[in-house]
Amino acid sequence: MKISHEEVHYQNPFLCLKIWEIVHDSGGEMTPQPADTPPDRWHYHREAEFLLILQGEMEVGVPEEKWTIGSGDVLLIGSSQPHWTRPLGKPLKYIVFQLDLASHFDQSVVVHLKYFQEQIRPLSALNYIFKENPEAKKKVAEAILGIYEEIGGQAKGYEIAISMLVKQIILVLVRSDRSDRLQYDRGEQLQMLAPVLLYIDKNLKEKVTVAEASRRMNLSYHHFLRTFKRAIGMSFTEYVNFKRIRKAEQLLLTEDLTVEQIANEVGIPNRAHFHELFKRQHGCSPAQFKRRMHKQFPTGESRKISGPEEAAAGTDG
C-alpha cells in the first residue's frame, strides 16, 4: 500500500486555503464492495482538512480509527495525517475545506497557536466535539458554508470575511474542547519547550540526549526532566520513543523499506527493541500494522460521528 502526498494549490495564496464541493450524483449504481476491500486511496497533505457532508453518507479512515459520517456532519483531519474517504452510496454531496491553520493565527491570536501544533495527538482527536456537541458542529458547519460562499462570490472584503470565519472555527474548537485534547492547561509549558520539541523532531534518526535538550532550555538535567514530564505528560525518553514510532508508522505506509531499514531511519537500530516499542504502542508488530492499515478495520463497525440529535447545517446543499 502506498500513500500519496497531495500538494494543495490554494485558491487565494494569502488565505492559504482551498475549498470545493464534490458531488456523486444519483446516476448509475455503486457496486457494493466486500468489507475487506482496501480503501481507494490513502493520501496526506500539510494542511488540516474539514469535511462537511451536505447529502448522503461516506466513510473516512485514518490509521487510528474510522468514522461513518452523514448529512450535516463535520469531520476534522490533522496536518499530514494519512487518511482515505469512501462514498457509501449515491447521491453524495460534500464540501472539502483544506487550510494551513498556522497562517490564520495573526498577531492578535498567535498566543493560541501552540494548542494546534499536534505535538502529542493529531487534530482528528477533536472530532469527539462534533459527536457530543451538536451546537458546536452546527457553528463549524455554518462557518465552512460561509467560507465556501465567500470564496465563490469574492465580494469586496471577502478575505476579511473568510479570516473571521476561520477564527470562528478555531474559537469553537477551543471553547468546546471539554476533554482538553488541545492541552490548554499545559499551553505555556509547551511553548517553553518548543526548542526541545524541534530538536527532537529534527534528530529522530540520530542520538537524542537529555543533556543536549536541557542545554537548549538552560535548565539543569533533573529540573529539565521534571519540567518536561509535567508539560508533556510522559517522560523525555517515552516522548522520544513515541515520536520515533510515529515516524515509523509513516514510513511503513509510504516507503518501500524493510522493517530493519525503518528501524534505522527512526534511530532504533536494535530490531528487538524496535518491535517491543512498536508493539507497546499498537499491540501488534510493524508488519501486522501495515497489513491492518491495508485492510482498515475489515470486519468491525465504523464509528458514527453523528450525535443523538440531527444536525441542522446545510443538508439541502
Automatic annotation (TrEMBL):
Region (Disordered): 296-317
One Pfam family linked to the record: Cupin_2
Keywords recorded for this protein, A-Z: DNA-binding, Transcription, Transcription regulation
Listed transmembrane segments: none
Domain HTH araC/xylS-type: 194-292
Protein name: Helix-turn-helix domain-containing protein
Native source species: Paenibacillus residui
